[in-house]
Amino acid sequence: MTALDDAPTRSRGLSYQDLLDADTHPVPVVLRRQSPLAPGPTFVPVERYTSPEFHRLEVEKLWKRVWQMACREEDIAEVGDHITYDIANISILLTRSAPDTIRAFHNICLHRGRLLKEKPGRDTELRCAFHGFAWNLDGSLKHVPCKWDFPQVNDDWTLPEVRVDTWGGFVFINMDLDAPPLAEHLGELGEHFERWPLERRFKQAHVAKVLRCNWKLAQEAFMEAFHVVATHPQLLAGIGDSNSQYDVFGNICRAITPNGTPSPHLHWTPTEQDMLDAMFDRSLDEPRLLEVPDGHTARETAGELRRHTLVDVVGAEHAAELSDAEMCDSIYYTVFPNFHPWGAFNRIVYRFRPYGNRHDMAIMECMFLSPYDESGPRPPAAPIHWLGPDDDWTEANELGMLARVFNQDVFNLPKVQAGLETGAIDTVTFANYQETKLRHHHMLLGQWVARP
Questions:
Q1: Cα gap 359→48, rounded to integer Å
Q2: Could you tell me whether strands 427-429 and 81-87 are parallel, antiparallel, or unpaired per DSSP bridges?
Q3: Cβ neighbours around 423 below 10 Å, total
Q4: Which pLDDT score, from 0 to 100, does residue 67 have?
Q5: Pairing mode, if any, of strands 68-72 and 252-257?
Q6: What share of the chain is helix, strand, coil (3-state, %, to 5)?
Q7: Which DSSP string corresponds to 33-51?
């Protein structure tokens, strides 16, 4: 037996379930669930990131067939509001055609093929800016200029529709009219978010950045905590990176990374104050946000602070019930193929997709979904703030301290793409456990692209 064979199957230090045992409040059952992915193949072909042919396969076999999050319901809150969702070489137009009805169409004029809409807006019709052909909000034909010259056009000339459904305040589309329903694709996701309903949030921020890498490379950088030790060393005193828990539930996978506990990579023992400072990404020249009282831990101190900040929006009674785990930990889900809502009261939602029809460029989006006082109206949805490939994340002030962390994350990505493009290796290698979410994604992706 070799030394590698003698290696432990998990990192040293407290497991996530051990931390839950010490929580100062009752822990929701969903955090007690464990569903690890069985050990299996850990090699993925490099061509999945570097091949234009594989990108085209994804477009045909994945993007044209899978349910994907297109927008928030509040992005198109009023009748006539519309927004576009672009994926590879396809543009989908979503509009609220009636107070309780959202429709989605291929964003194309049936006359000469111009895009009907390019920016969000509000209209009483869907009119082409080229020649003036127009459709009603329900996709039915409204106006044909010089109708006498188009005897072949009749009332059946409706906009080609795609399927629409909603979950958690998000609008999903599917171009495959024969696809199984969204509920089947999402599986038990609703059960996981029953305690944290995302439909009762508002979109406080929405930032999109263009990256010079394949969309899967971008996504994978945010699907594990394994990279923290090298990429975010300033966080190690307060993050149990290698003690994260990873679970798989159908098309859903989940990671839970504990905070307010030290990384097992450390060779020194941080104090509870060190852990709290690291949780808030405090620089040495910055004042402390909060002091840990004597006899208390970083987790319970941070938990109490965050419960207090939620009182005005969820009520004192509900806030008092929330566990330290819900207040402190990173509970990040991935719904295949590219939707990443975070659990508990962390505001983050990610979406990743190709930039244009490029296999080597991506769009990374971060939304903040925040609770609000439901005795008043829902605040308006924030518009997308676009950042180019050379823009700094810190230009998006609305992201706060997260922007600095994002800069560290995306710094590596063009260099990974460049390395893979050299052709020096044929496969990338994933860890059995800590890269569970990556293995799960590629397992499902392989099944989708192999479909007839």
A1: 9
A2: unpaired
A3: 10
A4: 98
A5: unpaired
A6: 30, 25, 45
A7: ---PPPP---EEETHHHH-
- Evaluate whether 190 touches 333 at the Cβ level (below 8 Å): no
Q: To 5 degrees, how large is the angle CA 189–CA 11–CA 439?
A: 45
Measured distance CA(349)–CA(370) in Å, rounded = 11
Tokens 């543009």 — which residue? 91
Residues in the chain with pLDDT < 70? 1-9, 284-285
Structure-block tokens of residue 278: 């690291």
So what's the pLDDT on residue 6?
A: 47
Place of tokens 């009261």: 345
**pLDDT digit string, tens, across residues 215-254:** 999 999 999 999 999 999 999 999 999 999 999 999 999 9
Instruction: Please tell me the distance from the alpha carbon of residue 329 to that of residue 326, in angstroms, as a whole number.
Output: 6
CB 102 within 8 A of CB 96: yes
Q: What pTM did the predictor assign?
A: 0.95
Q: Which residues contact 137 (CB under 8 A, 6 or more apart)?
A: 79, 80, 95, 96, 97, 98, 103, 124, 125, 126
Domains, the chain, with CATH or none: 16-61+197-449 (3.90.380), 68-178 (2.102.10.10)
